[in-house]
Structures are given as structure tokens and as C-alpha cells.
Amino acid sequence: TLAVAGANASIAVGGVGIRLWDLSGGRPRQGALLPHDRGVIDATFSADGARLYGASQSGLFVWEMADPDAAPTPLIEGINITALATHRQTGLMFAAASDGSLYAVDAEYG
Fold this sequence. Notes:
With 110 residues, the chain is mostly beta strands. The protein has no helices and nine strands.
């Protein structure tokens, strides 16, 4: 998965964890590897680029970009989250689960 944050010129690439790439210098430069125990299926940045949300088989997690070495904070645990979408006007993020359930999360406050 790929997510782009215009606010801080970053790209996040999902895998086992999330690799950040810095785009500010004209050429992508490899950055921090954000820790996670499972493969990240989908990801999206907050509107201001301060947070990165990641979906995985074990739930929905948020990383604070100010401290990329810190473990992510779980927002939804024990649910196989398969997709994310953010409604920028309301700040709501929607997480779809493999069983067809839909979860709404305030992307600004978690």
C-alpha cells in the first residue's frame, strides 16, 4: 500500500511495518521503518501529516510522525481491517473489516 502526505513531503509504503520515504529533496530518500507485527494492508495520513493510520489483520493503528520510532497506538484491535477511507471535510475515517463491518474513527482525535 502507498500513502502520500503533502504536508511533510512523505510517502508511506506498507509491508511488515511501514517504510517512510522523504520526498523533500527532489529524489526519494529512505526514512524510518515504523514497527508493526503484521503486514499493513492500507494506510492514510491525517490531513496535517502529523499521524499515519495503518490497517492490518490485527486492527487499526496510528503512528505519530513526531516520534516514528515509537510503537503505534491501537485504535481497533482484534479485527481484520482491509481498507481505509478518510472523509476530509468531517475528519472521519472509515475502516472496513473482512466480515463486512464498517467502523468510523475520528481521524483527528482517534
